[in-house]
Amino acid sequence: MKTLFVIILVIVSILGCAQKKEVPIGVTFQYETIFREGGRGDNWCLTWAAYNSQLTNMCDGNWLGLYHGEPLEFIGRGMYRHLNESGADGGDSLVPEFHNRVYRIIGNHDDFVIEDIPDYPEFPSRIWSWFGYGIISVDGNIYSALSKTRRHHFSGPFRGIKLLKSSDDGKAWGPVNRDGEVLSMDPARARGKAREWDEVTPGEMFFFEEEGITREEITAWPFGWVDFVQEGRDHSASEDNYVYIYSPEGAYAHKLLLARVPKNELGKRDSWEYFVSYGKNNQPEWSSDLSQRGYVYEFPETNDAGDYFGWYSWLPSVVWNEGLGLYIMVNGGTYGGRSGDFSASDNDYFNTWMHNQTGSLGFWYSEKPYGPWHNFFYTEYWVADHPDELTYQPKLSPKWISEDGKEMVLVWSDAMRDEEGRSHTVNYTWNQMLITIETE
User: Fold this and answer.
1) For residue 106, is it within any domain?
2) Which of 121, 106, 104 is nearest to 165 (CA)?
3) Number of domains making up the chain
């Protein structure tokens, strides 16, 4: 009998060890793997599409340096000019950068090619001020969320989002109204040539200036810029058939919002629910009333020195890590305003400038896409390989993850200045490196 009891204890012990999940405790940055690719651009929200490629948003740039397949030369101040095959000036017309563009990435982290998606609508800078952040592939459908600025250039807070949809791997796109219908497009508009793409009406805006909060004298709105939780290839790793979407609270960006919707009703606004709070056993409570929204997590509002982060902070990148059996979040804050004092005033918090010093960087994990979230790395100032870097908008690739889950690819943006002091020049492109998730 005693022997049987010992055997049972051993079996229970073995099963307990086998079921124990490794917990992240830190991050190692593999600096020797830093790689930069392509022309100008930033932000780089990613999704893993049905045909095994990744799609990425890019803001304020032209990653391939092309316009309708023709090569361009960057001449400064967000403008390009045409080049002919010999490299000489090909004409007098100038081409602006894109405020938003989507590209396809084919291959592995150490050997990939970039392809344009030529039929994605054109959003040239200084004309139609739409910026692309959240993008997701679900059951063969691609959704791209565009944020509308207050002015015809980068400016905050964002007023809301327009939701675009493609059901043919990016060949045709149309805005989704709140009933889930893809609006029909005339040929000119479908090519992105018609000014109607700039339309800001409740009929075309999926979120638009709703339930705002005023900070001193400026009102900001929830879900004005968003990112989707990435759950494997074409959303195939989802266990509950919901799509989750995160967004910073516009007036207090360190407070993180969360919404969800059944994946087959993503385009139906009335089907969305908003996180209110954690209830018993950390189960989330939801409401269909946006005004009842709560916060799933609160990041630092300031650093230890009391410097405030601005509105352009804390948009998370959340991916499912199959090897670890966990969701991993990377996020960071940017210090607000030009004054250098980094105050909480409107002049600083809502300033378009966010890069007087490099941003913060942190990592979190959760067993569920909705949290609760546990921090396992954070630094108030993060640089990669040069002390003058001004890093921001960290992302994680949802595809480039090792089988055991411990190796991932970090992607980030950098507003580093050149020798003449011009920002967004050196390293203002796709930046990536391998990272190792340390566990115990």
Assistant:
1) yes
2) 121
3) 1
